[in-house]
Amino acid sequence: MSGFFSKTHEAYPEPVKPEQDYSYCTGSIDNVSFSGLMQFEKCPYSLFLDKVSRIPRVSGPAADRGSQIHDLLEQYVQGEISELKWSIMKQGLFHKELIDKFRIDYSNGLVITELKYAITKTLKPVDWDDKDMWHRGAIDLTLFETTKKIRATIFDYKTGQMNKSVVHRSQLMLYALMLFNMYPDLQEIQASPLYLDHKAKPFYTTFMRKDFDTFWPRWEARFNQVTDATVFPARPNAFNCKWCQHRKAQPDINQVEPACSFGVT
To answer: Which of 16, 139, 203, 230 has the most CB within a 10 Å radius?
Structure first.
C-alpha cells in the first residue's frame, strides 16, 4: 500500500503522536470511490469523518473552478452550447482542437460524456444508488473507435497543477478495467489524463482485455480494506494533513472547532 504513494511525505518530520486512543473511531463503510480509496490509504480517520460521521464536504475555489470547467466541457461536447467560454482557462486554449473533435465524434455517436458506472462486490453492474453498490465512478469522456465498441480511448479532465501523474494514471487504469466490465466486446483501451491548464499533450497508456485478470485482484483487495474496516486510525503528518478540510474549523458548515483534533498545521 505504501508503495503506491510518492515518498514526498518522508521529507516531513513526523509530529509527536497524540495520546488519544483512536479506537473510538468505529463504524463501517459500504462502498468506496477511487477518491475515497486514496483518502483511506492516506488517513482512514479522514474518510471516517466523511462517510461515517457524514461531515459535509467544503469545496474551495480550485475545486469549484474544476467542476465548472467539467460542466462546460460536457455541455459543449454534447452540443448543448454553441460556444465555449475559453476565458475560464488560466493559460490558453491548449486543447481546443481535440475538444472540438470530441464534439464532432459525439454527434456521430462515438462519444459518451460523464460515463457513470456502479458495481457490486461481484462486479455486477447496478444503478448508481443501488443498495448493493460497492464501487462507483464516472469517466469524463469515452471515445469509441467505431459503433462496434471494440476499441476505445478514455480521457480524464484535470485542472490545476500537473503533479500527480502516477495517481492519475492509476485512476485511469481503474476506469479502463470498469469499462471492460461494462462492454464485453471491448478489447483495447487507450487512456490519458487531459491537463487543461497545461500544454502537455495527452500521454496514453494502453490496456488490453487480458489485463483485467492481472490488475483487478489488487484493486479488489484495496477496496476490501476500506469496506471491511471497522477501526479508522488517524495518520497525522504534514503531508496527509495539508489539504484535509478536517484540520481546520469550517465556518461554511457552522464549525467552531476542527472535526479532527489530530491534524498537523
So the answer is: 139
Q: Name the residue with higher pLDDT: 130 or 262.
A: 130
Q: Give dist(CA 233, CA 230) in Å, integer.
A: 10
Lowest-confidence pick of 4-18, 91-105, 178-192: 4-18
- Global pTM reads 0.87
d(CA 168, CA 20): 35
The H helix count followed by the E strand count for the chain is: 7, 5
Q: C-alpha cell of 135?
A: 464501487
Cell numbers placing 168: 492519475
Q: What is the CA radius of gyration of the chain?
A: 20
Helix axes 34-42, 165-182, angle to 10 degrees: 140
Spatial distance between the Cα atoms of 225 and 233, rounded to a whole number of angstroms: 13
What was the pLDDT predicted at 60?
83
Residue 203 contacts residue 192 (beta carbons within 8 Å): yes
Amino acid symbol at 264: V
Indicate the DSSP class of residue 210: T
Hey, how many other C-beta atoms are within 10 angstroms of the C-beta on 213? Answer: 9
DSSP state of 80: S
Neighbours of 115 (CB within 10 A): 17
Closest-CA residue to 14 (of 238, 184, 192, 215): 238
Strands (DSSP E) found in 61-134:
111-119
Which of 139, 133, 221, 130 is CA-nearest to residue 178?
139
β-bridge pairing 188-195 and 151-158: parallel
pLDDT tens-place string over residues 242-260: 889 999 999 999 999 999 9
